[in-house]
Structures are given as C-alpha cells and as structure tokens.
Write a structure and sequence with these properties.
Blueprint (H helix, E strand, L loop, with lengths): L1 H21 L7 H19 L5 H18 L8 E5 L11 E4 L3 E5 H10 L4 H20 L6 H7 L5 H6 L12 H21 L4 H13 L10 H7 L1
Parallel strand pairs: 1-3
Antiparallel strand pairs: 2-3
Helix pairs in contact: 2-6, 3-5, 3-8, 4-5, 5-8, 5-9, 9-10
Length: 233
C-alpha cells in the first residue's frame, strides 16, 4: 500500500521527464493547465463517484476558498476541492492530491481521519483540513502540478479508467532525486504556512495534522513527504 503511493508519484515525475527530453512540452497556457486538471478530476468522479457527505464537500471548499482569498495567489484560477466516495482502488484513496488548474482531490475516508484527529471538534477539524489544503495549494501555485499536463494530453481523455491508469507506475520506473523532492516539499511547507497565517490559522495546524496522519499510518500524500516531518518530530 505504501509502496503503491510512492510509485504513483514516481510515474508522474518520470512522465514529465520523458516529455521534457523529447522537447514536446512547450510553455503551458492557462487553458491547458485548467483543461488537464478538470480532465483528471472528471475522470476521478466518473470512476469513483462524488461523496454524498454534503458537510465534507462544503467544508473543504469553504476552507480552500478562504485560503485562496487570503493568499492572493493565482486569482485567475477557480479553486476547487472534489471529495470522492471512498474506494480502496482509487490512487488517492485516504489522501489528498493536487492537480493542475486549482483542483484538489480527496475522499471521505481522508476527511474522517482528520475528523478523528480533531476529536470531533468542528473548529479543530477545519484548522487541520486547512493545513492539508494549504500545502496542496502551494504545489499548484508553484506549478509543481504542471508535470501532469503532458500526462493528461498523452492519455485517453475520453476513457476514465485508462486516464487514471496513467497515474500508476511500473516497478522499474526511474526514481526521483530525494534531495530535489525534499527541497520542493520544504518550499511548499513554507508557502502553505504563509497561506495559513494569512487566513487566520496557525502553522501548528499543519504540523498537527501531519503528526496525526503519521500516527494513523496514512500513505504519503501526492507530491509530498509530510509524514517524514511528522515522524521526525
């Protein structure tokens, strides 16, 4: 399970490397970024279904909109969180993942995990959720998710299972440089902390949620290694 999530990330980075090497990835337009992100999200919804937990959906999007307004970053994007029904076959099951164009995908199980960590305190849950979304938002602001755009356009946009299969990797996929990953993650931690403070939350809210995820042994979140931080504290 843990290895599967790590291979998921490796596949995305490997795909981006291949496109770059071929010179196939020109400067991305906003339209391409938004189209790719929406395409992936629509595929997730088609394959796994959107959650019927209205409270989770409304809270997630309310928190994200607040972070986006407070940050002032990328106002051209229509920021959105999609909460899926839980399915263990979902590549981002029990996790949160950033996609191009302002999209973040998570599921009911992940939000239940955060709710448990908050001790069923609504305000605490909101703050912990903000910690997760702020970090994922930073990946989009920093264009880390641009690596997924060529993956989308090379995939089968009309076939959800095939498109989502492109997010899964092979055992022999090349490994990402650990130092580069850590540098990227540290930068997103800093950006995310800034968004939290601007929105009226505390930096500790980000730290607390990752500690809880480590205690629950939740797999690593796409584009991040927050559990490394949590286990080291």
């Amino acid at each position: 399970m843990k290895h599967a999530r790590a291979r998921f990330l490796v596949c995305l980075l490997a795909s981006a490397t291949i496109f770059s090497a071929r010179g196939a990835q020109a400067a991305l337009t906003l339209e391409q970024e938004v189209q790719a992100g929406r395409g992936f999200v629509n595929a997730f919804v088609e394959q796994y279904g959107e959650s019927e937990e209205r409270g989770y959906r409304e809270l997630s999007n309310s928190v994200l909109q607040g972070l986006a307004r407070a940050s002032g970053e990328r106002p051209e994007l229509q920021w959105r969180v999609v909460v899926l029904k839980h399915n263990p076959n979902n590549p981002v099951a029990c996790n949160a993942a950033a996609f191009p164009g302002g999209h973040i995908v998570t599921d009911e199980a992940f939000l239940r995990t955060i709710e448990k960590g908050a001790g069923d305190d609504p305000k605490r849950m909101e703050a912990m959720l903000a910690g997760v979304l702020a970090h994922e938002m930073a990946h989009i602001v920093r264009h880390d998710t641009d690596a997924l755009v060529p993956v989308f356009f090379a995939g089968k946009a009309s076939d959800a299972p095939k498109l989502l299969f492109t997010l899964k990797s092979r055992e022999d996929a090349p490994k990402e440089n650990a130092a580069e990953t850590r540098t990227k993650e540290n930068a997103c931690d800093r950006h995310g902390a800034f968004y939290l403070l601007r929105a009226g939350y505390r930096v500790d809210d980000m730290i607390d949620v990752f500690r809880h995820l480590a205690a629950e042994e939740v797999d690593e979140i796409l584009f991040s290694s927050e559990l490394d931080h949590a286990r080291a504290t």
